Amino acid sequence: MSIVAVAVFGTGPVADRLVAGVDRRPDLRSTGRTTSAPAVPEGTACVLYVPTLAEIATDAPKDVVPRLLRDGYDVVSALPPGADLPVTDLREACRAGDSTFHATGGFQTAIATRILRSLSEVTTDIRRIELEEELELPAAGVYPWNTLGDIGIGGTEVAARSAVAAVADYYEAGLHALEDAVFAGAGDPEARPVVTVEVRVDDAGTVEKVTVDRALGPRIGYRSTWSARTTDDPPLRYRLVTSTDTAKGATTLRFDAGQGVHPADHLTCVGLLDAVRPIHDSAQGIAHRDLSITYLMPDERLITRPR
């Protein structure tokens, strides 16, 4: 197996861990880290792109990703699959650079989406899906937040509501992936979830907890609860409930931190690193579908756009 030369494009703890993660993989080789698209290290074949929320808010990926692809680099990004990227520009850039692009949806919510999707795809009579996420954050935050303040914890209600809006694409992509898996395309791919935000503050008006309810029609609900970590309980928990006409089934997932890494960041890094080899080996174009499901077996839903 050939060794893929990989550069990490980004700042923050996740970018640091990705550089170390590349070095630990026998089929990958690190060419370094960059914070500027024109400054990709020489010899790089694939770029791991982890933009911050601030960069996403300024639409930087709309310029960065096509430029990298046009320059001949395969790109694996932590952007959500539903990110507002110029698809026509991406396809033209892939043709010009003979390159491939994939958005992993690098975010802790992806693990619940993957597991529930796998379970639900083998069940034919599910009528409703409900997810509950409990995320306890360290002071440094988790990707794509760099601090607790980025999510509004310890700050103002205005900041918390802005943080909810900033990650909307990640959650929306997960909701649509589940809808497609469970209800076989019966939903509207352009539908936007209804979002309700509840912010709990202390007597001084400082945010202690943020709860977000997302509903994609009457069949899919997703509740997220974000707070600062104050206990020794696992910092990331999910409860997955599927309902049929006659019964309910529930699964609880608990993820604890290991070696000083929050499990949310660990999941983001694993998703990005696992995608490098299949994307590099894929035909030129845009590769869709979550590669953590399709990495070891063919799947017609892993679509590449030929020239």
Automatic annotation (TrEMBL):
* Taxonomic superkingdom: Bacteria
Q: What is this protein called?
A: Dihydrodipicolinate reductase
